[in-house]
Amino acid sequence: MRVTVRTLSAEPVLLGVGDTLLFGRAPSEMLSDDLKFELSVTTLTLARCGTHVSRLLGELSVGEEAVRLRWRGKPQATLSSLFDAPGGARRGTLAEGMTAVLDTGENQLLILRGGTDLTGYVDIMLNVDVAFDDTGSSPYVAPAAFGPDWGLLPTAVPTDLEPDSDTWFVALALAEPWLAGADDYPRPPTNREISERIRTWRGDSGRLAAPQRVHDAIQQIARLAFGSGGHPFRLEDGRRVENVRYAVGRRAAEVGLVTEDQLKRVERQSWERRQRSKP
Fold it and tell me: Could you name the domain of life of the organism this protein comes from (predicted)?
């Protein structure tokens, strides 16, 4: 088994059977004294990593027959296999405590809003290529610790939407299918349906009764969720990207702009308000 890990601003890391790669904002800070001198353990510091990212974000372990990725921290990431996945390409979300077995071929790991630039949060991409090596040669492990050393900075999750604000309620309505586990929802809600859903939750739609207000809020959510240069309102070849609401709703749930607990809270508050209004 031979694994190659590539990311921007770092040399490729080549792993073989028995090797482990730890990566994150400052993974070397999380090593015990025994592991610091273990040749089979390599650390990779992600360049331009935000201070909200965990020092130890992920652990990649190479076995004789499988490569396992354990997600150790925050934020979440999406894992996409591009070639030899059973049934074709597949995509899933990784949260803290989850483990995934990588497919043979190229796997893309997208750390959602894990990096920062002058415009705000951006995604960090890692490409993990998994292949069987029948040459019998020993793998070379590249030196670790490329990128900044953030030391012991806090790992707080970034908050960009004020709870119970108009924009927050729009994000909650868009992301509801994913937060509620009903992501086979046939289509994203229209502006009017979003307004009606918000009226159910808080008793009135307020300014969001106007469709333009909902549209403006969705654009703001897209900028926060996708970061610089990545939101789906951009034009490609002169055409607007399709399924904008679908993309924004899924992304808002993936990066935690709104959460399942928040959805449960507004549902509970809505139920309590209806109970109080009964004669």
Answer: Bacteria
Reported as a single tens digit per residue, the pLDDT across 125-141 is 898 988 876 554 444 34
The reported pLDDT for the residue numbered 169 is 94
Query: How much is the pLDDT for 135?
Result: 52
Query: What is the token pair recorded at 41?
Result: 């353990």
CA distance 93 to 236: 26
Number of Cβ atoms within 10 Å of the Cβ of 8: 13
What is the SS3 assignment for 92? strand
Under the banding of pLDDT at 50, 70 and 90, the label for residue 70 is very high
**pTM over 0.85, yes/no:** no
Peptide bond into 75 cis (omega under 30): yes
Backbone angles phi, psi at 222, to 5 degrees: -60, -40
Phi, psi dihedral angles at 54 (to 5 degrees): -60, 145
Domains of the chain plus CATH, in order, are 2-131 (2.60.200.20), 166-277 (no CATH)
Helices 211-226, 166-179: axis angle to 10 degrees equals 70
Per residue in 80-99, pLDDT (tens digit) is 875 544 554 567 888 888 99
- Indicate the length of the chain as a whole number: 279
